[in-house]
Write a structure and sequence with these properties.
Length: about 625
Amino acid sequence: MTLGELKELIANDEGETVEVKESTGQRRDACETLCAFLNKNGGTVVFGVTKKGKLTGQLMADTTKRDLFDAFQKFEPAADIEVSYVPVDETHTAIVCHVDAGNRKPYIYDGKPHKRVQSSTTKMSQEEYERMLLARGGFRSEWEDRPNPVLSLDDLDLEAIRDTARKAVRVGRLDESIDTENAASLLDHFKLRRNGVLLNGAAVLFGKADRIDYPQLEIKMGWFKGTDQRVFLDNSHVQGNVFKLMDAAIAFCFKHLNLAAWTSGKIERDEELEIPADALREALVNAFAHRSYENRRQTIYLAIYDDRVEIKNPGSFPPKFDLTRLYSPPIQHSEPRNEKIAHVLYLRKSIETWGRGLTRIADECNRVGLPVPEVKEEYGCVTTVFKRPDWTGGNTPDQRTGIVAARTGTDTARTGTTHRLSGTAWAITGTTGTAGVEDILARLPKLRKDARANVETVLHELIADKNATIPQICARTGMALRTINNALATLRGAGILKARGNGIVGDCEGERAKKQPIKSEGQPIEGEKPHIGSRKPHIGDEKPSIEPGKPSIEDLALKYGLTRPTSENIHKLLCAFGSHIVFGRSMIMAETGLEITAAGVLIKTMLQHRLLDTVRGYGKGKYRFRTTVLS
């Protein structure tokens, strides 16, 4: 566009197809107007024009173009925006952004739809948005079905594809005649490949984090002090495919939620998370199955507060879905946004029954006397909010169900010393495949049919993932913690699993298995021997023994010139972690009861006195004690 053409464009003032802005500092308002143009007849926004219509241009900083590009990434579906730069004088430039009428209406910007009314931009009503959405072709996303010619089989976890097929066959959701070892043909069967080209959905389900470029395949998790986000106690960002992200989210919940004992007229207590793991898992599956993947900058969020747990995903409910009767019969029609992704989750039994996810969540919460979670849609996101039990008054009987929630542990969730289920690791070696499982089952005593099925499921999980943790088994199978522990106890009693330090390893067919390296906070580092004890398969409060020759509190004070309180805290950590456990600030807070700032000061002190080594590959801010400290 020439300067003359630009002057002619802005001569008639603003209208249905033209809007002017003084600078790109108003780019958000400008993008909302472009969104409105896309939803109508197209139009042009010009940066560098005053409110009185004077063409002045603007100075072009190094970040101007990048800021505009970043702003344009918030359109959904992706918008084709033509940008021109027109010099006004030697130092100032006008920026002209033009869009034609969109062919995939309705468009939204930063989660909201907009429309143009004469010379004004306004938010589009829900009714109008739903009408345009239906006219476009429905609620379902086209993104998962788009080919990605750059994606190859090398970028996918082929074993995860085979494992999905094996699980689907085991649960009767895939025909036994399917070749579960041919990953390429399985992708065709799952409709994740077209004419030999992989689709985006294949990357979502089976992509390797280090091989694919999908920024939206991430989950951001935080554990916060209090009821807002001003002070965080732990945070984690994990990238990878859907199954890896769900495993990480469930493990984060097991790490930071309390373990509760629930009774319902039985002598024995059922121990589980204060919010049932099945309910959390179902909500996470819904988030990944129904989220909007189009926007590369939006991710799923998991936030744990003192009073609630929130799971937030970009997306919306289908048109005419009534949020006011979310948990009321009859069940509303299930319409997955990502049909291919949801289908594979269903085959793998991550989705139990079509349309019953919210009902299962409600049933699980009612079972333990918790209110059903609040589900709300706002700003282009769906948020599920679970209320945590209020144990400030001790045991809390629920009159509706007769279930009593008993607090376990002796301290508050703030310090982290309440009983928690951490990621105990398992490694089973010496056998592979279905035949190996049958050999192991033949060595077990006679079991009830359901107990045998549970043991078989756990065995398959341990063989498929030699570093599987109890939270991961729970997340992948939907089994209750008590059921998993019973199956592990059965295997251990038969001599198939043997306790070694922080985990259980298999001794199958007479071959003594070796401990596999584990990369998670609180677990041994590759190449170092964990303390060998008689730890039970479920997690308790036991701590690994410190190696012989540990310094006393007095030794630490004299050798390093430390105050007694500091020496006492370091001694606690040495007794808890030895030299083979990787730990971070949240674990220091749990062991010592220090606040977040004091824990940071303690870390700085230990680093200054060369007591710690910084450990890479475990996330930011992870350490272990130097072996010289124990000598």
